Structure formats: structure tokens, C-alpha cells
């Protein structure tokens, strides 16, 4: 065998095709096929006993909080199980019986593993021991916990400036872990806290903060029962938030209407067979009343069309806009209404690509309704104008007086199960003088006042050698971030990269000079200490905080909980030289919760109130109270149209999730709801666009982006003709992240432009 060194590590995995099958997309989501797929996954990964132990407690009161998405649990839980197919897949992925042991690392070098697909890497199983990849070595070897902490502490001390370290967070960590992590990072002396939100709902936080004064949504789950209209924009709930379909079903049963705005007609939004109800399994509910097939990133044009139509009706008959609300609670309406006059209907219709007839249906539907909820996700946030996309939704809701009422409001549907909580308890690269003052009061040290790095700027800093240590609490930074090859170089230039992880992923293989893997407990596992089974707490997408209790024996007796790992690292770094007693926080999470309650408002009697179905955090937008805004009012915003200067042969590509993945974790190779089986390297294209390029179904192509004269190439994709607007393409991430330049991101929020990448297609 030829001698290999670290330079041979592959940044992208195997691109070999896996044997595609295409079929018609199903006419409904969920139903019995979902139950079957879920059970197959559970049995294959966990076996019967572990399946029963986990699934019977999933999302039940004081059970395991689903590690999938952040959709909330209903107050009344179903006895048939309160979870979905993808919740089961998330559990099975974590509670798998496969193990990545020291022997595994002895047998497989990082070079060999780097050539596997993400699917193969993930299927290797749970990490069992702390491991180290020493400089120059291509095999990880075991390391004692104590030695690992000492090594990291020494490396952190060796930096010239704490701002040369970067501390990433992914949204699965508990409030307790995230708070302690943020505290350690601030005590160490930096605000370099990029987190997965930066790539996700940061645009929502920025837009909602500026317009309504709170970066979170205003509705509760119960509001769906009272809503007259729910608009689902740029979101695929059938796959990514499956139990949201039950909420839409309830809304429909009470006479509500559902409007979907999406370049794809996602199966999950068409018809839903609720597996938790016998009648649902048999009949199903038609969910979408009107689907507007908008072109990629033309939502602002479409929302302007809707508001123009409503303004015309208001001028004719009145009663369409809520002037009492607008006058009492908002500012800036005149500018927004006069700005609408600058655009012609023809121009906006051509941009948005929707039919006039369907548009009129939506305008009529909205005209007389007030209880309107707008839900959205990555289809709105991951564009250059992501923040404006959301501000335009807020404009519509403010015109209708739909915020701060029962059955109406904003609903950014969050991704990871605790991504919202992590932010609430202090994972934030921006400086908050108020938070710094509270921390100083509670802990007796002064947190740093220099702005920290977000995800895109952290990557740049590492690439430029300005940041040298990368620590990740969860996640898979390399595969999740844009510009995979640039991000790889950034990580490889670091002195040290550290991952606190449950499962093996690509970020463990493309590393700094020294790399450490610190294996941690997952949500499903018992967290025993001093005879006590500890629990953690999380916040769902609607601001409710509750407990999660692990139920399974840990994957290995070497695992440490996330709070304990952070506490040990902090102790190794500070020794005795800190006003914070880190060790006791690592032991007693109740103490962490007491401190959270001291630092943040709304957490009074935290431990006790988080029991049963938990408690709601304060939310002034939900109460319709905008008195804390600078002018005491909610703000309308004038938003421009996005500009995409596309060359003749260029398309706009959205990089989306299949039904068989959780971000960079690939559960399987099928995208059942889109009729695509056993292949991920596909590109969805309109039939007429394919024809124009002389392309046939399953032809092999490369996707190529060209920004600032630099060509980036995603090789080997298969053409799949699909019902998608002309000029638009769709393909899965993370395979397509190689195409997205690291310096292309949203204004203000800095979220990468994952949903509007300019590419051309090259036939092979
Ligand atoms: N099973 C599963 N669940 C998940 C995840 C997962 O990977 N798997 N990920 C979790 C995370 S972290 C997140 S953030 C969420 C993501 O949840 P989603 O945002 O639903 O996920 P995406 O697949 O990125 O889908 C974006 C949707 O927006 C549409 N879209 C794209 N561009 C546009 C546009 O310009 N305008 C409009 N109107 N629509 C557009 C796409 O067609 C697609 O339906 O899901 C969470 N839940
Ligand atoms: N092109 C493109 N890129 C995108 C997106 C897109 O739509 N298009 N979406 C973006 C979005 S919305 C997001 S949120 C990011 C996701 O970015 P990340 O959060 O970084 O990625 P994940 O795939 O969710 O992380 C999976 C890894 O987390 C670890 N893990 C799982 N559970 C736990 C746990 O309980 N504790 C710890 N410590 N580790 C755990 C496992 O090792 C697993 O391999 O990706 C972003 N990237
Ligand atoms: S909707 Fe989300 S949180 Fe609920 S069971 Fe499914 S994946 Fe888990
Ligand atoms: Mo996300």
C-alpha cells in the first residue's frame, strides 16, 4: 500500500451513483406507509426492546423530547404515540446498536473514511471513547478524558488572544449545556459563538427583532385551531415538521383554510392521512386550499401582489385592513402602501410566476379574514434578501391586524429541537450589554465586549489564520457550511479542532493539526450521577420550556454528558483561578437552572415549572404589546425586490432536504414524497428547460456556479424532470454545498444563500 498522509483526505465523499428508481409521488403524506417505514428503521437500528423503551416515552410528559425538529407537543398527548416517522428515524439514528470503537478507528484511517458517503459515515454508529488524531497521524487513537481536557486547555492558553478560538453550537444541545458553554466561552474571553442558527433562522430573528421587538414567533400550537387561514411559505412540513400536519388538519376541521407558497407542490401539503387516528388512516384530509407555485426567491413580489390586491379591495369597500390596530400599534404604513404603487401588477405577476386566477383566490380568501398565521422556514430565510422576505410577511400581518390575537401571528418553524433554547440562554455572537451586566452580577466576572464571529466570518477567520482553535458542541460544521472546499481548508489550517459529538461525521475527518472527538450522551440515554437520573430542559419552536428524561443505557460507559464535558474543560482551563465553581455545575444541573433564572427573565422556579408540560417564556408580541419597541410601536418595512442577474444559461438552484435525512445525517437514500428512490445525486428541473438543453431523464451532468470569476463544481448529478417553475432547479444539500461561495450570504443576518444559488448545467 502506498504511504498516505493527511493531504490525501477527501473533502467530498464518494460520488458513485446508487441505483436510482423514479415513481409517481404519493397522493398523500403519512398514513400507513409512514408507520411502516418508521418501524422498519426502528427495528433495524435499535431492535425491539430499545424501540419500545424509547418510542413509548417519546414526547410524553417527562419522557424523551424528540431530538428531531422543534415542533411543539400538544397539551393532550395521543395514546397512539405522539411522534412522526422522522421522529422515529431521529431516535433510531441515535439509539442505534452500532458502535464506533477504538478498534474501528484502528481499522479505518481518516483517509479511508473520508471517501465514504455521509450516509456510510453516519451508519457506522455511536462514538464510544474519547479519541485523538495527533499531528501527522491518519488514525485516531484513544485518549483519557483528563488528558484530553488538559490538552485543549493548554492549547487555549497558548493562543495570543481568546478571539483566536471559535466555539460552534448546533441546536440539539440542552439549555443547561448551552448556558454553561456560553458562560465558559465568555469567561475565557471571546464572543466567537457561531451557531447553526446563523445558517438557519437568523434572518427570522433579525426581521422579527426589528419589526416586532422579539426574535421569536408569536403563535402557540393552540392558535392553529382558531386560525381562519394558515399560510405556509417556503417550508416543507410533511418532511421536516411532520406533526405540523396534525395542526393544519385541526385548523381545516374547524373551517380554516391553508395556502401554500412554494416552487414545489410538496406532497405533505396536499393530503394528509393522520396515523394517530383510524379515520385519518382510511380517509385522510386534503390540506392545501390554494397552492401558489412561486418562482424561487420571488416571495416579496408575490406578497406585494397580495397586498396590492387587498389595498384595492380596501379602497373599494373598506373593512380589509385593520385601521384601529394599525393606528394604535404600528408605524410606517403610509410608506409601505405608497411603495406598493411603484410596482405594476403585470411586472409582479411575471416575476412571481403565479397565475392571476390563483392569486385572486388568495386575495379574496384573505380579504375578510383576520385570524391569519404565517408559517415559514428555509425557503424564506436562506436568500440574500432573507430578512426582507420575512419583513414582507410581517407587513401583511400588520395590515390585517393579525399579530397579538388568538388564531393569528408569526410562526417561524424552527429546525433543531433546541435551537431556539440555545439562543435564549446565551449562545450569541452579538454583544448584549444587558446580558453582560446580568452575567457579571451573577458570576462576578466581566464578559467580553467585542462582537464575536458568526458562522461565515468564523470560517473566513480560520481560513486567514486569524482563528486557530475550533470547538464544536454538536453539529457537523464542514458538511453544513457553504463552500465545502474553502471550509475544509479553514478547518485544516487550525491548530486544533474539537468535536463534542454523538456520532461520527465528516467534520471528524477533515480536521486541524490535532483533532479530538469527545463522545457524549444523547437525549435518549440515562444521565446517571450520584444515584440520581438527571434530566435536561429544552425550548420548542413556540417558546415552551420543558424537561427531557433519557431512558436507555448509554452507548458506552465512557460517555460524558454535555454539561459535564463543558464543566471539566472549564475546570482544566481555569484550575482554581475562576469565580465560577465549574465542577458543581457539571454535577448538579439544578444549580445551572438556578443561574439561568438569575440571568434571564421568565425562568422563575425553573426546575419545578419545567415539569409536566412545562412553561411558556414571556412573549410581548403574543400579547400585542409593542411598548418596548423604540417608538412603542410595531414597524412596517419597505422592502425592495431581489435582483438576480442571471446569464442566459444560468438557473436559480435551491438546496433542500430529502425525506430521508436530518441535515447532514443521511437516514436513507429515498425521497418518498417526491417519488425519488435510492439516489441523492439528482437535480430537479422543468421538462421544457431540460429539453432546451437537450437533456433527457437521468442524463449525467455537473452543476457549476460562477461567482466573481471563480468556478465551483458539483460533479455527477442525474437529471430528473419535475414539476418546478422554469428557470429553477432543486437538489439536495449537503452534496451541493460545494457550489455556494463562502462570501454569498443574506444582508444583516449573514445566512448563506442556500436557496438561490446561480448555476449552469454541463452535460457529461
Ligand atoms: N426530517 C427532517 N426534519 C428536519 C430537518 C431535516 O433535515 N430532516 N432539518 C431541521 C432543520 S435544522 C430545519 S432548519 C428545518 C428545515 O425545514 P424546511 O425549511 O422545510 O426545509 P428545506 O428542505 O430546506 O425546505 C425548504 C422548502 O422551501 C421551499 N423553497 C425553497 N426556496 C423557496 C423560495 O424561494 N420561496 C418559497 N416560497 N419556497 C422556497 C422548498 O421547495 C422546500 O419546500 O427542518 C428541521 N426538521
Ligand atoms: N446548502 C444548504 N446548507 C445548509 C442548509 C440548507 O438548507 N442548504 N441548512 C442549514 C441549516 S438550516 C442548519 S440548522 C445547518 C445544520 O448544521 P449542523 O447543526 O452543524 O448539522 P447537523 O447535521 O444537524 O449535525 C449532525 C451532527 O450532530 C451531532 N449530534 C447529534 N445529536 C447530538 C447531541 O445530542 N449532542 C451532540 N453534542 N452532538 C450531537 C452528530 O455527531 C451529528 O453527526 O445546516 C445548514 N446548511
Ligand atoms: S414533528 Fe418533529 S419533534 Fe415531532 S415527532 Fe416529528 S420530528 Fe419529532
Ligand atoms: Mo436549521
From TrEMBL:
InterPro entries: Asp_de-COase-like_dom_sf, MopB_CT_YdeP, MoPterin_dinucl-bd_dom, Mopterin_OxRdtase, Mopterin_OxRdtse_a_bac, Prok_molybdopt-oxidoreductase, YdeP_MopB. Its cofactor is [4Fe-4S] cluster; Mo-bis(molybdopterin guanine dinucleotide). Keywords: 4Fe-4S, Iron, Iron-sulfur, Metal-binding, Molybdenum, Oxidoreductase. The keyword 4Fe-4S applies. Residues 126-527 form the Molybdopterin oxidoreductase domain. Residues 651-757 form the Molybdopterin dinucleotide-binding domain. The keyword Electron transport does not apply. CDD domains: MopB_CT_ydeP (cd02787), MopB_ydeP (cd02767). Signal peptide: none annotated. Pfam families: Molybdopterin, Molydop_binding. Transmembrane segments: none annotated. SUPFAM superfamilies: ADC-like, Formate dehydrogenase/DMSO reductase, domains 1-3. Belongs to the prokaryotic molybdopterin-containing oxidoreductase family. NCBIfam families: Fdhalpha-like (TIGR01701). This is FdhF/YdeP family oxidoreductase. The lineage of its organism: Bacteria, Pseudomonadati, Bacteroidota, Cytophagia, Cytophagales.
